[in-house]
Amino acid sequence: MLTYRRVRSSLAVLAAAGLLAACGTTTERGNDTGGLRVVTTVAPITSIVAAVGGDRITIDGLVPEGTNSHTFDPPPSAAKVLSRADLVFINGLKLEEPTKSLAHANMGQGAKLVELGTEVLPESEYLYDFSFPKEEGKPNPHLWTDPTYAIRYAAVVRDALTAADRGNAGYYEENYVTFEAQAKALDAALRADQATIPGGNRELLTYHDAYAYFAKTYGWKVIGAIQPRNFEDPTPKEVAHLIDQIEAEKVPVIFGSEVFPSKVLAEIGRATGARYEDTLRDDDLPGKPGEPEHSWAGLMRYDYVTMIKGLGGTPTKLAALDTAPAVPDRADYPQ
Ligand SMILES: [Zn+2]
Q1: Amino acid 34: pLDDT
Q2: Quick one: what percent of the chain has pLDDT higher than 90?
Q3: Most buried among 11, 35, 173, 244, by the most CB within 10 A?
Q4: Residues 209 and 167 both lie in one domain
């Protein structure tokens, strides 16, 4: 089994333990321990930022795990956290508009807000669909479920951290390279394991519409997503249409989500005979903060394994991956 944990130099270990703090750092901005103060939104993004920033930054995530990030309204207490930030990383692509407004109203002079998805995805590649219709003007924002985009997120994070803290440029680059290797290993394992799905049926019918870009990159067909744009359950008319579609396409399994439990989906499963797999996690990292699975790679591995197994494949390469963060993740993940 490959592992991406690195043995750090003794100097870095001392620095991590705070023993070099008295020497000062070259940080241009930052908190009293010398590291940049960073604020993030959803947990997978927090994990990617933590992987690059490591022990040289402090991170406050704003969106509690397992909540609906699409309708999340930050509490008033977030204003204070944002006012102290040097850098704010959000997904963008109109996912976190209330948080973005609060950030702009409260961020201090010289602080910077970075929209990762908006940075890496040209407008010509925005995807719209049932849950994210074009007339609403909000593209599907879920780029992080695709490792190729997660790598590009990490590169934007590295560049933003480096611009704010040039003294640690080499450290951020080293962490980025490690993250990229882990994401590429995930990509390779996914490609190998998805080939084991009988009949090549890489077909996804999900409740929450989180895999549009992933599907495009990895050759999956998104048959549909059930959750309407208002994040309520679908109407009886929509349900009837879905049942027809599932029967016509002989969909073997429908994928629900722990973040969006849905009685309707269970009913659709019963009505059509499609198996109802209700354990995709969307942006809710497995395990607890500090545990090896509690990472972006742990989340994606979990979801890919669920999808491939659900469709009858054998995801052995994914199962063998080490998804633990390569550098200690010290971010604050609200639960
Ligand atoms: Zn989502």
Answers
A1: 65
A2: 68
A3: 35
A4: no
pTM: 0.89
Number of structural domains in the chain? 2
What's the 283 CA to ligand 1 centre distance in angstroms?
A: 7
Same domain membership, residue 58 and residue 205: no
Which residue range is the domain that position 137 belongs to?
15-187
Q: What is the DSSP string of 147-173?
A: HHHHHHHHHHHHHHHHHH-GGGHHHHH
Cα–Cα distance for residue pair 30/57, rounded to 1 Å: 8
In which residue are the tokens 């930022």 written? 49
In angstroms, the CA 31 to CA 29 distance is: 7
- Measure 69 CA to ligand 1 centroid, in angstroms: 6
* Whether residue 136 is found in the same domain as residue 240: no
If asked whether residues 24 and 97 sit together in one domain, one would say: yes
Q: Six-digit token pair at 322? A: 């080490």
Stretch (H or E) spanning 181: helix 169-194
**169 C-alpha to center of ligand 1: Å?**
32
Distance CA 192, CA 230 (A): 36
Choose among 205, 175, 147: nearest CA to 330.
Answer: 175
Distance from the alpha carbon of residue 148 to the mean position of ligand 1, in angstroms: 18
Q: Which of 169, 27, 167, 31 is nearest to 108 (CA)?
A: 31
d(C-alpha 88, C-alpha 302), whole Å: 27
- Poorest-confidence range of 6-15, 255-264, 295-304? 6-15
- The CA 10 to ligand 1 mean position distance, Å, reads 41
C-alpha–C-alpha distance, residues 37 and 67, integer Å: 24
Å from CA of 281 to ligand 1 middle: 10
Residues making up the chain, counted from first to last: 335
Ligand 1 centroid, distance to 76 Cα (angstroms): 23
In angstroms, what is the C-alpha Rg of the chain?
20
Query: Does residue 200 come out as left (phi exceeding 0), alpha (psi in the -120 to 50 range) or beta?
Result: left
pLDDT tens track for 122-174: 999 999 988 899 999 999 999 999 999 999 999 999 999 999 999 999 999 99
